[in-house]
Amino acid sequence: MQDHNQQNKEQQDKEQRDKGQQQRNLFGTDGIRGEVGAGVMTPELALKLGWAAGRVLSRSGTQKVIIGKDTRISGYLFESALEAGLSAAGLNVLLVGPMPTPAIAYLTRTFRAEAGIVISASHNPYFDNGIKFFSANGSKLDDELELEIEKELTKPLVCVESHLLGKAARIDDAAGRYIEYCKGHFPAELTLNGLKLVVDCAHGATYHIAPSVFQELGAEVICIGVQPNGLNINDNVGATSMQAICDEVLKHQADVGIALDGDGDRIMMVDHLGNVIDGDQILYVLACDAIKNNELKGGVVGTLMSNLGLELALAELNVPFVRSNVGDRYVMELMRQYDWRIGGENSGHILNLDHGTTGDGIVAGILMLAAMQNQQASIAELVSPLKMLPQVLVNVRFEGDSNPLQSEIVLSIKHDVETKLGKTGRVLLRKSGTEPLILVMVEGQDIDLVTSYANQIVDVVKKVGLQQS
Description:
Elements: H1 4-23, E1 32-35, H2 43-58, E2 64-69, H3 75-88, E3 92-98, H4 101-110, E4 115-119, E5 128-135, H5 143-153, E6 168-170, H6 174-183, E7 196-200, H7 210-216, E8 220-224, H8 243-252, E9 256-260, E10 267-270, E11 276-277, H9 279-292, E12 300-303, H10 308-316, E13 321-324, H11 328-338, E14 342-344, E15 350-352, H12 361-375, H13 379-383, E16 391-397, H14 408-421, E17 426-431, E18 437-443, H15 447-468
Parallel strand pairs: 2-3, 2-4, 3-6, 7-8, 7-9, 12-13, 12-14
Antiparallel strand pairs: 1-5, 4-5, 9-10, 10-11, 14-15, 16-18, 17-18
């Protein structure tokens, strides 16, 4: 549990992050994202963005940028537009084709590029796409740089002189390099021989990477979601649609299921009984394994959405736990602030700074399999000490420009429920940054009671939302 000073510090950090986010109009918590051809995700924007980013990055000595993408059909369009914009600003471009987001972070470092760009909308459907940037050290760009890029976008595009234009080249062995990088995170003295895995690549960027990684480490691999056609990414497969992999694990009597999302930075797992293992449970196993190996430094960072059961289980182990705002960039900020190594989200973004600079679904899966082999235990056994509390989530739409969370009536019902739950429950109310929605989350030890409390809060929020319209 957190003391008063720590809570105050986290609130100040949140306010500072929120202020930075408000200053930026284009970049969100994970780059730029939207429907292709609508809003911001247009060819014109990509061209201008490439140019603006090139102008800003070149001021700090940037000469070459790596561009990767997932398997969406629109990736070709945005790849070409970004390449043209960067060239117009005088920057050279290295193209790697479909590659996981964490692979771009790795390749940016290993090729000594000054920046990396990923064209992906992660877990969104194919008709969305997005653009996000990595710095030379493989981490996401600072808010200040993103703000500079937005300011540059307001200026007219001016091409450099012809002899200064950037060139483009393709890295043909990018996939092989990243496969070897991933395998390097598995202890040399261990093997996956004898394990049967189901690996779901969501028809996304890991389709030609993940199966080879686990096969070359010795596992028998059954693959699904490895036939991308540009339109089927995340379509009833992958980390956001777990039924397919649960069915396959039971059908083939596999030991483990590993589900990745469209760009490969997120992982969910399935135990041999067909139960879904989420990001909170993965964090718990990795923290316990680090303790066993005397490698845990500090504590664990979760988010506002992390299950209270994780916090209570880590407290039993005397492991500190703090919550960041939702978004892996905010998890990373707190990890750096506290100098801790492990953090993540229940949605499956797992960060381990001893094994990378950004969330990496394949590497997180390797670390989980290593924990299994180290302790000669199934995933079901490794997560069994963690008792996840029932959690009810409801999105409530409201009307008008007012914020229902500022209502005294809403604050009062929230306080009443928190008092009744005590230390064995939690209430979270969050306003969406993109839609007129309030997320109501209640968790506690009794599902019927939690559901009842959630409904009470939802009723009040709905009533206030209508009154304010």
